[in-house]
Each structure stands twice: as structure tokens, then as C-alpha cells.
Fold:
Amino acid sequence: MRTSSLNECKGWHHCTKVYAVSDLEHSRNHIIYTVQQEAYSREIESLTNKRPLPKDSVLSKLDPFIDSNGLLRVGGRLKEAKLEYKEKSPLIIPGYCHIAALLVNHYHNEVRHQGRLFTEGALRVAGLWIIGAKRLISSIIFKCVTCRKLRGLNQTQKMANLPADRLDTEPPFTNVGLDVFGPWSITTVRTRGGQANSKRWAVLFTCMSIRAIHIEVIESLDTSSFINALRRFIAIRGPVKHIRSDRGTNFVGAAKELKILSNVDYKSVEKFLSNQSCIWTFNPPHSSHMGGSWERMIGIVRRILDSIFLQMGTTRLTHESLITFMAEIVAIVNARPLTPVPSDPEEPLLLTPATLLTQKTGTFNAPPGEFDSKDLYKRQWRQVQSLANTFWDRWRKQYLSTLQPRNKWQITKPNLKDGDIVLVKDCQVQRNHWPLGLVTKIFPSEDGHVRKVEVKIAKGSESKLFLRPISELILLLSSED
Structure:
């Protein structure tokens, strides 16, 4: 039987036969003995000749000794403890060798990918003392793909610079960000048999520079209804040069119908012409933080609307009342101060969006004196121009400085690269079912940092490409690894 067994195992191969315990233990001791002889030859020589260890030895505090198999073990102070021999005197293994990494990986899998303390405890119980174990275990857990799947953090990058349209002194609503929010149930028709209800939504336009808002109510979420709201907005506020929004279906459809150049097809971004009257920029899907300037305004509007509804009680909304409420909300939001309220009595003028929109401050009465109709027409344009100049001067000196600091995402992180394996976040399913993806293309910003990528995800027998921000991705395995 033994001869036939030896004849069956020839050459290098992966043997699937069950090994005897004695064979496994002998192999383990031989491997550890080889590693110890290579790493601690000076210490073994000193202990063999019964001399003290060198003063610069890393094993001095462990009081090591050589057992009957010629292996280095920890002497320590637990000889009288009621523990097994392997726990009282574990084998010493250098932390920089490949064997130590294999052992840590093995026992990390044994504790089902728990933290460093669990893994280190399993090594101690197994009778192994790895020099520098804490650092080695932490390094292996950090690189563990399964741990990243279970507890890995989303990718972040240093906060980007503000776009130019946030810093330009263009007329109000030249550069806007927009989004749709709602719905609200309203009463449209009242009859003897009851009342018919329908829903309404609202489109919020936010000026990127002076932070003013404009709201238009729409009857549906289709493209035609949104285009009508956009036409009303342009008729009231004037032409728009640059529109920013998310990739809502109605927004993309409106850009196509109005024949406005957009970055829906990222390959044609470089073909933008500088002489176009309007450009529509779409943020990547699932990246609401990239539209924070108008998403924040939606939150403010909702809170004011909730306060109005609370005061109304159970009164049913109508289309007319909803439009009235939206107009009042616009006035409230546009009257908010853009900078901290000054305590200096010599500067009573507050810097608000309404100051520039309405050319009214609401703080000064008409100056005393006698004026005729000629003075009215002669001086009106000077008053308006002076107020506008005052607004932009204070906007430049007081408001822009508040946009300077980065309140979060202050550290530059390594960029994602082509070929990286990532886990794609999906809020609709549990984390264990999030799909794996392969980064196929990166889109660096002007500062060289990557904040959005193209990801290939396999679904069944097919694969699809998705554009995602890095905040929705978890790096599992780098292409360099």
C-alpha cells in the first residue's frame, strides 16, 4: 500500500490526499525551524552556547529558549499558569517573513474576518508569537478584499475648486443650477359628488453667483411640462448661459429638444464651442453632493413650506394657493443674508440676493427735500447703479471669502485607476449583494484628481457601463496589486 501510494504521487502537483497529523506537525516544525535559523541565527547561537542574548536583540524581553525540537519559544513569566504548553510558550516567528503573512491570513479567515484583536487572539491560542504582529495584522486586514466588502469605506477625494460660474459677477440667473422637488396633492375640481385631486411639482432655479432662487410649479414630470417651466423662467429672468443639473430624464430630454449642447455624451465634451448661447452640464448619477448649491436651497424651501402647512392645519391646497406659497417662499429665501449680520451701526445694509434682484433695501426711507419730475428721471438710474455697485463690491469683499475654506475632504487621496476592482454601492439591496465592477475609464478634473469614473458591471451574461462618482465606490483591489 505504501509503495503504491508513493508511486501515485510523482512530480509537482496539488495533492488532495488526507495527511496524517504527525506529518503535518513535522512539516510545520521544519518550516518554522528554517525561518528561525534564517532570522535569529545570533540568538540561537547564544542560547546554544548558554550566553546572554545580544543587547540589540528584539527577543530580549521574551526570555526565549530552545525546545526539544530545536525551535525558539517564548520563556516569559507564565510558566506557572494553568494553560496549555503552546499557550504558555508560543513559537517565535519573525513578522517580516512570508510565513507570518500566511499564518495571519489563515487565522484571520478562521475568525471570519473580524478585527485585529480577534485575529491576534486566535494566533496566541494556536501557540504562535509573531514579532510585530499588530502592524502585520493591521496591514493584512487593510488589504483584505472580504473585509473591504463588509466594512470598506466609500472613496473620497480632496474637495474640488469652485467652478467659474460660482465666482463670476454676471447678472443674476446667468448661470443656474436646477432641480425638481415635490409632489404635493392639490384640489383641482370641486363638485357635488366630491372633489378631484391631482399632484404638482416645483422646479427650483438657483443663481450660482448671488444664491438667489426662482420657483416654477409644474403639473407633471415629463419633458414638455419642464420645458414650459424653463420658458417661463427665461421670459422672467432673462437668457441663461450655463445650466447645471442632475441627469433626470426630463432634464436630458429637454436638453435634446431645445438643442442645447450638453455633456451627456462625454466623448463630445471637447467639441463644445465657446460661442454657444447656453450649455447644459449634467452631474454624474448618484452624486447629489456635486449639486450641493441647489440641493441646499431645496432643503430650506421644504422647511419653510412645512411651517406654512403646519399653520394651515387641515386646509386643502389648491393650485392657486400653492403658487402663492411658492412666491412667498422665494421672497423669504432671497431676503436671507449671504454673510454674517454686521453689528456696526455704520453698515446697516444687509447683503441679500433680493437687494440686487429688486433694487430695494427696505431699510431707508425717501430722503427729505423737494424734488420735481425732472429729478426723478434724472437720478433714478444713478440710485439703481449705485445700489448694484454696492452689492457687487460687498459680495466680492465679504461673501467670496466665506467660500474659501474646505470644511471637509481636505486630504488628497490616491486616484482610482483603470483596471481597479470596486464594489458599487446600491441603496436598494443589502451590502452583501452590491455588484462588483471594473473601472474602465477615469475622468480627471482640472486639478488632476479623479472624482468620477466609468465602471463595467456584469449582469448575467451581459456587461453594462455606468458612470459613477467615487463616493459610490469602494476599492477592493487596486490594479497595481
In short: The radius of gyration is 35 Å. Residues 1-5, 265-276, 363-368, 371-378 have pLDDT under 50 and may be disordered. Residues 152 and 474 are 6 Å apart (CA to CA). The chain is about 35% helix and 20% strand.
